[in-house]
Amino acid sequence: MAKILVPLATGFEEIEAVTIIDVLRRAGNSIIACSLQDTLEVAGAHFITIQANKTLKNVLNEEFDMIVLPGGGLGTQNLSSNQMVQELLKKFKKEDKLIGAICAAPYALHTAGVLNQNYTCYPSFEKKIHETGYHSNEDVVIDQNVITSRGPATAMSFALKLVEILNGKPNAEQLKQDMLVKH
Amino acid sequence: MAKILVPLATGFEEIEAVTIIDVLRRAGNSIIACSLQDTLEVAGAHFITIQANKTLKNVLNEEFDMIVLPGGGLGTQNLSSNQMVQELLKKFKKEDKLIGAICAAPYALHTAGVLNQNYTCYPSFEKKIHETGYHSNEDVVIDQNVITSRGPATAMSFALKLVEILNGKPNAEQLKQDMLVKH
Predict the structure, then answer these.
(1) Mind listing the pLDDT tens digit for each residue in B20-40?
(2) Domain limits at A106?
(3) Quick one: angle between helices A169-179 and A155-167, nearest 10?
């Protein structure tokens, strides 16, 4: 069982955030969704408000196995301009821990300088990152400890790949069956 | 633009609820997520708490174009035992309005007596409903005004089919592109 930090910034993409949290919890992991503000309620890009488990400020000294960033345009802007998130990303990278990001959020890895050469992201964001090493035909790209994905429709594949990495392939296969995933 | 009621019962399946709300809002519809209790916070099956827009009690006299039920085992139990939800379903059926349900939730349509002959649902729930007319090979089944689907991994197809019905095929196709849906 892994302990995973999911920062929820105002404007996060809801399908992505919820799929990541839901699927990783189904596999038995401990997911701590954290608000960047002092309040726990965080509004997503489509006005769905989710209650975070803790504030980010309150977990800065906790140990985690992985950090995963949901996307969303505004959400990513907030993740890339937030000092706590950017410092945490650098700390995870330095400690060689797992880092994940989907949709626009690989841009927030780029601003922290923790994105590896090979990655994917929501189309057009590669222009703000770097076009060399951008994989437009892969739903999920793994380059060492950094795992990236593309958007709402790839959130399920992304979450299942994280389960495979953290909890093993049989667990991922079981979840695929439980959730009626075909591919 | 359609006005759609999404009841959120304690134990709702989060991927299903959020995908329905997110995608239908992307298409420009007005989605009112309603708590069955007197408080707005509703905890899902995987402990993700979502803030509903209103309490169900407060919208009983509002007019909607459609009602859509997310699934989840406990969520469905709560939907099928809740008098307000069951009466609303009967009212929607009587007024020939659209009714949707995914995963275990078609069972809550069955208990209200509003499910049509042809339907689909999460595997095994057909044994509690009726095996004749159960379609195990379809992600989404439409029988007149009642649209049903199967589980977390079919939530995207389900939501997009609802957009197609409510907002037209071009809107659904545009959303598929925006969310990077392949099929």
Answers:
(1) 999 999 999 999 999 999 999
(2) 3-179
(3) 140
